[in-house]
Amino acid sequence: xxxxxxxxxxxxxNGFFLCLIIVHFMASVAISVLAMGGVEIGTFMALLMTxxxxxxxxxxxxxxxxxxxxxxxxxxxxxxxTVFMVILFTFLTMPLISLINVVSQLFTTNxxxxxxxxxxxxxxxxxxxxxxxxxxxxxxxxxRGIIFGGFRRSGAVLAGAVLxxxxxxxxxxxxxxxxxxxxxxxxFCMLVEGTGSIWASITAHAVINTWNxxxxxxMEKVYSEMGKNxxxxxxxxxxxDQKLAMTGFLLVASLISSAxxxxxxxxxxxxxGRWEEFVSIFYRNKSGNAGEDTRYTGDIDNSDDNRYNxxxxxxxxxxxxxxxxxxxxxxxxxxxxxxxxxxxxGTGENNTNGKVRLLTPSGYIAIAxxxxxxxxxxxILSMFSM
Length: 386
Description:
By secondary structure, the protein is mainly alpha-helical. It has one domain (2-385). It is 68% helix and 3% strand. It has helices at 2-36, 43-64, 69-73, 80-104, 111-116, 124-153, 157-171, 175-195, 198-225, 230-234, 240-271, 275-289, 361-385; strands spanning 294-295, 334-335, 348-351, 354-357. A hairpin with a 2-residue loop joins β3 (348-351) and β4 (354-357). The termini are far apart.
């Protein structure tokens, strides 16, 4: 029963991501076709449509299942002190994100700046709301709430954090944003796991986006008063030597700020009373890698209450993995592999009844479709526009 429950979550989550990619693919093609016909949609409508294409499928996913929504999405209230520490933690991670952004520009263009040029024409308050608040909420709802939450409910906390972050990066559909979105995805998953609440990742994501939008609007205002076009100056060719110099500076800054951020993260976990729970994730993963005999000790639907013995001792099971007691019929559910996707085959779990893979066929199809969109879609559409 436990194996079927895990497979159920993994299939649903991978299928959900595939649906998101298909919907965005169809929307991209439709917008491109309209543009070829001389029909342009405004910046506000483009932003709204992008976020609704995340939010609407997410709500459909939630209401189509019989799962506990708040338990899956983890909308748990944060302590006031935690909110301020999350904001501080977020600012301390920004040098690392800037470093990854600059390094990615050695191989590709700064897509984020090119896209942000369209925001300037919108009212400032509306831009801050759409990009800084509404957008982060929709993205966190889909990726840290549904996708990471689903992997987590299947028992795959670490591998689920990595795979959901890969999905988050791929969803941006360009190499520049994908590079730092992948790292941010891991950071956001850490915050959710460290606090037990999705509000932590929503707060961090909103801080990053809002800060960048405000900075963009202020800089554009200053350049305008100087009679210069900020985006023309930004788009001027920057030499490789200049990028490497910036990389060196950001590398030093990110090492210092990341060390401070880790200290703040520990304080966040301790303030929410979840540091031991967060650390236990790595012990459980290590136990699985060692191939030790580990039996689950609770309901996999609420893995906050699941604890494995870090010393690798045998622990008796009091449930069947779905919250149903099985000791009355004398059944044991036993795992002999890595339930986090890092076992013998690197992608799934070995137990006495077979394997449960984290990445299902729909996930492979979604990844392949993302690669097609990133590298080939624009080229194909440009051929038809000639």
